[in-house]
Amino acid sequence: VGGNPKYPNDGGFALKGWRKCEVDNAAIYINGNTGTTVGNVILTDKDGNVTVVDKTWTFLKDADGKMRIMAHHSSLPYLPASTSVLSEDEVLAAQKGWGDALVDIATTFDTKGLPAAKKLAGEIIDAAYAYQYGPVLFKPTLATGDQTFRTTREGALAYFVGDDAKYPNDGGFALKGWRDVKIENSAVRIDGNTAQTMGWVIITDKDGNVTKVDKTWTFFKDAEGAVRIVSHHSSLPYTPAPAPAAAPAPAAVASAPSAPVAQTITTTIAVETSVAFGAGLVVGGLVGHFW
Length: 291
Fold this sequence. Notes:
- The longest helix has 25 residues, at 88-112.
- The protein is elongated.
- The strands form 3 sheets. A 5-stranded mixed beta sheet has the order 5-9-8-7-6, covered by helices on one side. The chain has a 4-stranded antiparallel beta sheet with strand order 1-2-3-4, with no helix packed on it. The protein has a 3-stranded antiparallel beta sheet with strand order 10-11-12, with no helix packed on it.
- Helix 1 (88-112) packs antiparallel against helix 2 and helix 2 (114-128) packs across helix 3.
- The chain is α+β, with helices and mostly antiparallel strands.
- It has helices at residues 88-112, 114-128, 153-161, and strands at 18-31, 34-45, 50-61, 67-75, 137-139, 178-191, 194-205, 210-221, 227-235, 262-269, 275-283, 286-290.
- The protein has 3 helices and 12 strands.
């Protein structure tokens, strides 16, 4: 449970939300009042994530008849580095399997109802995704807010089939009557036992409606040779906003012709000392006389 400063690295193993524990013994050895077991313990947390550990116990039956643990060894299973190299055919087969599974869930829902579809979806997630190894980087198309990213099995199952009060916005993407899935890869990149793909997934429902999504997957080939999804990003294609309408050309404005400016000055010198000036000024159609 942690909380002891003498053991600062302990966060409390029993506090990790465990909801189910199964013990799968490989062997039991009994010698008088002691017994030793070896096998696996399978733990499931509240989000549906599963952890498998190798476990060895030795039990002692004391004088009072109580069973007590006197030896307890626990470790994560050894996973040898995979020497398996993914082939492109295996990647394409995994993609096709995902598409076929989507159609299977939809048709099961239509013919057998939600419980059967949900059971099938759980089995498909366990087979196709890598939640048993840790978080999967899953960003579904129609997820938003705090539940945009579905890194747990529980979140993935809710997205595909709904029926989970913790995910009230999930109506069940896999229940939308899908009947056909086509995958068009833009590129496939393989690096040892992992592969990344990017392209389009085109899905058609039972009414003939077609939906196209941008899709990026990362696949991982585990030590047992199973190809699993460890990253899955899906989004609707970007649709640019329409270009703004061009502003109308300004209307031509008719202007009145400029009237010539004429200036005449007439000077008359009278016989005596009188001077007369006459000036006529015409500007823009206006006439003025000054004498």
